[in-house]
Specification:
There is one protein chain. The protein is an alpha+beta fold. The chain has one domain (19-175). The protein has helices at 3-16, 153-157, 166-175, and strands spanning 23-33, 39-50, 61-71, 78-84, 86-94, 97-104, 120-123, 129-131, 163-164. It has a five-stranded mixed β-sheet. Strands 5-6-7-8 form a four-stranded antiparallel β-sheet, with no helix packed on it. β7 and β8 (129-131) form a beta hairpin. The relative contact order is 0.14.
Length: 197
Amino acid sequence: MDRRRMLAAAIVPLLHGCYYEREYPLSWDEEVLLHDGRMIIVRVTRYFTRSTSLPWLQTNYFLKDMEIAFDAGPPWGRFQRRFIGYEVELIDTKNGDWYLKLGDATVDPRNRIVKESAPFLILVRDGKERPAVSLQEIPNFPRYNVLPYVGPREDFFRFRNTLLKWDTKMKFWRDHPRSPGDVPERRRYNPNEGDTK
């Protein structure tokens, strides 16, 4: 075996052990305030795709999917779901039904499970789930209550494996809006305008 082949044979196993996994999960527990004043704890996991597997290169992270888990009470018990291509923006309940607002992640959903014009999944009190038909059936919840992917990546990733308190995440969101006017408060639904935020 010539010298170059011997060198390559020695280096390849070393490089193989230095690769990143392309999928990067980021998890924490998060306080979520419901419109009726109750606070629940939601386990949040975002799945990012790295732009490269090589640690010595500049890496960008693209949000791909999001998973949530929380105690939804009977008949659901502990609800857990990974939403492919979506980021969960709101979790709230009224009259025994749970409402989950889904926004597109960085990578567009491959298989849409909610309508773009009414992006809510409803966990009905009879144990069935269905996408909302229109926004007219969605209560006017006052705010988005799940922290979106905002701010500098390094600061956002520091929440990993912590309990993210309500006041901390609201301050972080207000300090790092995604665009001018990006705030947790929702505008009330106007059937002539559709969902404005």
